[in-house]
Amino acid sequence: MALAAAAAAAALFVAAAVLSPASVASASNSEGDALYALRSALADPRGVLQSWDPTLVSPCTWFHITCNRDNRVTRVDLGNSNLSGHLVPELGHLEHLQYLRLKDNHLTGLIPRELKNISSLKVMLEGPELQGLAAYDTNC
């Protein structure tokens, strides 16, 4: 009986490993950690970031986040959210990010230089979105 239970547990472990590749879980968690670092650096009087729960396996279920079919973050759309605070260097961990929309918020400080290393980033802070933000941080 104990042998059968051990075999069943081993089969479940193998099935879990096959169904949930570590690379996807790891990527989702590091992206979730990066986004949660952003949430922690922002004041959110409207509660638009309330769904950003770091205990969830993937940030792909969070509002204002779009992911590709590999569950990698491709879009962060927080425009017109009345957020204030600063951007965080951890955003550089969003390696598949294509769009970062922060228009009509109250952001200050430096744009983390880690963002310029994201080759897939096509649209970032432009025009009035940059009001109050300084150029890339080059002192790191």
A few lines on this structure:
With 140 residues, the chain is α/β, with parallel strands linked by helices.
CATH architecture: Alpha-Beta Horseshoe
The top-level CATH class is Alpha Beta
Strand element count:
8
Q: What spatial form do the alpha-carbon principal axes imply?
A: globular
Largest sheet: 3 strands, mixed
Low-confidence stretches: 5-26, 127-132
> Can you tell me the number of structural domains?
1
Structural class: alpha/beta
Provide the gyration radius in Å: 18 Å
Give the strand order, joined by hyphens, for the main sheet: 1-4-6
Share in helix: 25-40%
Please give the alpha-carbon distance between the first and last residues.
Answer: 60 Å
